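Exercise: predict the fold of this chain.
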Amino acid sequence: MRALQQRCIVPAVLFVAASAVHAQATWQLPDGVEAGTVVPAALPEGMVGPVTFEESEFPLGTTVDGLVVATLDGIPLPAPLTFRFSSPDATINGGPGDITYVQIPNIEGDASGTLAVDFGLDVTSLTFGFALACGAPVVDGAVAQALDASGAPVGSPVSIDALDFGSGFPENQLVLSPGGGFRSAEITFNSSGGCFRFAFDNVAYDGQPVPTLSTLGQALLALLLLASGCWVLALRRARV
């Protein structure tokens, strides 16, 4: 189904706003490099998503900064998903085309900017694919930092190199799992060495609320009450 949708979407990309078309022109393979045949990578199961940006809530050409979605193809998310970018130069677009970790459509923008994703509730892990418009490899191609509801860092930043898996573009999949709950993530890309554009796709996260101390306390109290009830019942039976 996605392959059919992609064949229908490709012509539509040509009609995106002039600024977006100009951005697309930077996604050219380096001289002497030929695009290879790739198989899209699988994403973890049991998570929300993956958000592929082909859902109806993401029309081509949409500006990413300030974009809020509460559903995916009409199906409610656990909480509204909010995207922010440091400039208007990030849109739902075509990027490098269909490669291993990124397919059409995706978020495409200025690699020197910062992309933020707010999940609307605390989660424990985030997975996404990305690609850069330059030659491979790229050390620390993407860096992600988890943040709590107050904006304070949770754990240390996580980075991963961007490599050529056969498409001619440096790309990879980053997994952010800092060992505790976080509300949002900020993602930056290595814009050195001519990497002027990024593409971001296939976002998945664990949409289950992280237990709070109050929740754990209530569960412990319920367990204690149950245990005490069992002891009372046992003592009554012993006296009979």
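Check your answer against the key: Confidence is low (pLDDT under 50) at residues 3-25, 212-217, 230-235.
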